[in-house]
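It is worth pausing here to work through a concrete case rather than discussing structure prediction in the abstract. The textbook approach is simple: state the sequence, then state the predicted structure, then interpret. We follow exactly that order.
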Amino acid sequence: MRDRTWRWLCLGLSNLARLGFDPPAIDAVVLSHSHDDHTGGLMGLLGAGARAAVYVPAAFPASFKDGVRARTDLVEISGPSEILPGLYTTGGVDAGLAGAGIIEQALAVETGDGLAVVTGCAHPGVVEMVRRAQEAAGGEVALVVGGSHLGGAGQAQIERIITDLRSLGVQRVALCHCTGERAQEMFATAFGADFLPAGVGWTITLSVR
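Step two, the predicted structure:
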């Protein structure tokens, strides 16, 4: 585990440097859930000079929260809220029995085109995370970006999710991480030019409202 975390730490800092981000200039970090592949680079970021406030669901392990508090400000999120101007969290959403008790939050960012919803893995379901983001922030969803936890999903399930996202008014998707090749292909077919092939090093610029 230590070796794997070290690799994430090094890769994360290298990616930040290549994208032109300076750790001390980062003033907020939002973690979706407590899996190591989503948290493993945080201490490296703080060690590189970032003194960002770290926002986590209140259900994060106490040992993790104590470690963060020793380095910087920790903000525990228990429900939907506006954490910065125009930046909303769904609050912790329970993935239920299928998710083995995983509590996860997503972000909704107000942009000039509508909401950009940012997910981690969407263990509680990407449709549910988008719905909670709309409830927290209000408005139409211009973009859903991040993981969708569909790597092992069948065709019928993916079709149902595409339909549900369309019914919520989602305009564009940039699904990556744990989405899986089958889901990527199906979303690309369903959304056409409104499917954005996201991945490591990919960036998108959105005008903030």
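Step three, interpretation. Confidence is low (pLDDT under 50) at residues 1-9. The first helix runs from residue 2 to 18.
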